[in-house]
Design the sequence.
């Protein structure tokens, strides 16, 4: 439904009354023609005239509509909602105004931002007529005017804002547009309720460049965090080395714990070079384990080495012996 209309058909009530009057006029005309009674014919003609006047005089405005009535070209006032009467051929309903909330879509194609980046912006505005009289008398087509004003304001806002601001803070852009459009349309009796930017499109090449830039920034931040973590780990290692240097037993216990951690899984086998065993000082480890487990069984004495057997007597070769 159009928000502005200068012509409306007759309402159902006026049509019903008109039909009843025309039916009565037809009956009177037929009866007067049969009886050759001029009064009946005159009454029928008067009923026809009344039916025509009723269809022109009895009007009805819906709940959301207002009718701007002119009398002999001058404003008589606003009528509606509901039924109202006008004087036919003297009064005229020039405009029917819809006071419901309306929406208008607008866009800015290839608009240059403050940093000379071409962007396409799509937006929608929600507006409502708060003064039907001014909307009908001070502007020819306020719907078209709102669209033009919104598009112009959008281009001005895009041209005064950098691309990063448009992409990161749409709410602020919405408020800027709402204030600018509302300031211009309030003079026409139109209130701008809200403005919403639906989409901002940048060229594909620029999107690729922005993606690479964001990826590089994230990789740089990741490397910084990794370096910071490495620095913290190195500091902890230095502290641990100082502690181990002051307490060799702590270092040996740490070595035992490492061996335990690596061999606690079932079926795991670890091979250690003899140099590493010597470095771990098994005697000290044995003393530490004896102190930790005092209730352990006494070690079994190692068996003595067997006495060496005398070598077998040598046999002298005899002449004539075989072999």
Sequence:
């Amino acid at each position: 439904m159009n928000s502005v209309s200068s012509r409306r058909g007759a309402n159902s009530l006026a049509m019903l009354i008109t039909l009843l009057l025309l039916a009565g006029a037809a009956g009177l005309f037929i009866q007067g023609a049969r009886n050759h009674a001029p009064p009946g014919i005159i009454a029928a003609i008067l009923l026809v005239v009344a039916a025509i006047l009723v269809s022109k005089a009895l009007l009805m405005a819906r709940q959301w509509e207002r009718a701007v009535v002119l009398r002999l070209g001058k404003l008589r006032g606003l009528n509606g909602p509901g039924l109202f009467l006008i004087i036919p051929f003297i009064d005229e309903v020039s405009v029917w105004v819809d006071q419901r909330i309306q929406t208008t879509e607008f866009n800015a194609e290839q608009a240059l931002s403050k940093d000379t980046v071409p962007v396409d912006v799509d937006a929608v505005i929600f507006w409502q007529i708060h003064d039907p009289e001014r909307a009908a008398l001070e502007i020819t087509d306020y719907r078209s005017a709102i669209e033009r004003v919104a598009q112009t304001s959008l281009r001005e806002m895009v041209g005064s804002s950098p691309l990063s601001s448009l992409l990161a803070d749409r709410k602020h852009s919405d408020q800027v547009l709402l204030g600018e459009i509302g300031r211009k349309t309030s003079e026409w009796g139109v209130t701008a309720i809200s403005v919403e930017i639906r989409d901002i499109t940048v060229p594909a090449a620029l999107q690729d460049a922005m993606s690479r830039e964001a990826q590089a920034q994230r990789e740089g931040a990741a490397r910084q965090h990794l370096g910071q973590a490495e620095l913290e780990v190195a500091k902890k290692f230095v502290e641990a080395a100082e502690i181990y240097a002051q307490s060799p037993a702590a270092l040996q216990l740490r070595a035992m714990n490492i061996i335990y951690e690596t061999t606690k899984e079932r079926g795991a086998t670890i091979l250690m070079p003899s140099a590493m065993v010597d470095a771990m000082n098994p005697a000290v480890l044995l003393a530490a384990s004896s102190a930790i487990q005092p209730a352990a069984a006494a070690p079994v004495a190692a068996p003595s080495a067997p006495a060496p057997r005398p070598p077998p007597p040598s046999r002298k070769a005899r002449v004539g012996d075989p072999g």
User: Anything to note?
Assistant: The chain has ten helices and nine strands. The beta strands are 4-5, 58-61, 65-71, 74-79, 82-85, 91-98, 102-112, 118-129, 190-201.
